[in-house]
Specification:
Elements: E1 3-6, H1 7-14, E2 25-30, E3 33-39, H2 59-73, E4 81-91, E5 100-110, E6 114-123, E7 126-137, H3 165-171, E8 183-188, E9 191-197, H4 203-206, H5 214-230, E10 238-250, E11 259-265, E12 273-282, E13 285-298
Antiparallel strand pairs: 1-2, 2-3, 3-5, 4-7, 4-10, 5-6, 6-7, 8-9, 9-11, 10-13, 11-12, 12-13
Helix pairs in contact: 2-5
């Protein structure tokens, strides 16, 4: 039976606030097919930082809109679901201010507490993104600080770090609220380690999330890779665009107060496309694994 949710009903279910309201309308067509709609206005807050002079809807927000749509209609508590795995995510066309987006999602496989979803985002220009995601029920937060952290570590912010915050911003156009790495601690040949502190003042925490949104972990990894690749002399003055997530697996949630280390290998390539794969860690604990692709283009 068809079920329709208006914008206030959607966010009563999800418990989210602006600027994380990524659907204006949601419809359950049947038990395995859902459709959503979002109209993007130029004053959406994320456009301020992505990007200041050429606003584009971040690709990971396409993915989050897919998740929000599914969580509205999958059985159980809509707030107690997260992405376990992303596969074959492709960002094909940009979504710009003024565009209207349709999200289509299909449940292709399910068990008691796990659903495999295929989804696409479309505008009048055609398909903008597509993804296969595994959503699971996750009623309990599994991360968290249980003892006083040790401040001295191999990636602590010292005078000899590879790239500080200002240097990162000199390479990439990302700004608040979508600059999602604090600094690059190390570059060892093609391996980079970037650092991001998860603060209780993060915009997404104020927006209603209790943990880092899973899709946002991929953006953190992509920004880490792009900053490092753009620092190479042959890429001076160029831009990096997120193109695809080949696979991402999220092992546990990350909560405010934790520091994540993004440990990625980025082989050198003569192509304008770059690939990276690696781990996101809290200390030595692996909380996510990612493999992604981005394009390096002329500014």
């Amino acid at each position: 039976m068809s079920e329709v949710l208006q914008v206030n009903e959607i966010y009563a279910k999800l418990g989210l606030k602006a600027p994380w309201k990524l659907l204006d309308f949601a419809q359950k067509n049947d038990d395995t097919h859902f459709t959503g709609y979002k109209g993007f206005a130029v004053n959406e807050e994320f456009f301020v930082g992505h990007f200041p002079v050429h606003p584009i809807v971040p690709g990971v927000l396409h993915v989050e809109s897919m998740r929000q749509l599914c969580c509205c209609f999958l059985p159980g508590d809509a707030r107690a679901k997260r992405i376990k795995m992303l596969e074959k995510v492709k960002f094909r066309r940009p979504i710009l201010p003024g565009d209207r987006m349709i999200v289509e999602a299909e449940v292709v496989e399910f068990s008691d507490d796990q659903w495999i979803i295929k989804a696409v985002c479309k505008t009048a220009s055609g398909v903008c993104s597509e993804a296969t995601m595994t959503i699971i029920s996750a009623p309990e937060v599994t991360g968290g600080i249980k003892s006083l952290p040790v401040l001295d570590s191999e990636c602590a912010r010292t005078a000899d770090i590879n790239m500080d915050t200002d240097q990162v911003m000199g390479l990439m156009p990302h700004r608040f609220p979508f600059l999602l790495i604090d600094y690059i601690a190390k570059v060892e040949s093609t391996r980079i380690i970037a650092v991001k502190n998860i603060s209780g003042n993060e915009q997404f925490i104020d927006g209603g999330y209790t943990t880092v949104p899973d899709a946002l972990m991929c953006e953190i990894a992509a920004q880490s890779g792009c900053a490092s690749v753009l620092s190479r002399p042959e890429n001076a003055g160029k831009l990096g665009f997120f193109m695809a997530i080949d696979k991402a697996v999220f092992h546990r949630q990350v909560v405010p107060g934790e520091q994540i280390l993004i440990d990625i290998n980025l082989p050198e390539s003569k192509s304008r496309f770059g690939k990276g794969a690696g781990l996101i860690r809290v200390g030595e604990e692996v909380v996510a694994e990612v493999a992604l692709m981005f394009a390096i283009v002329e500014a």
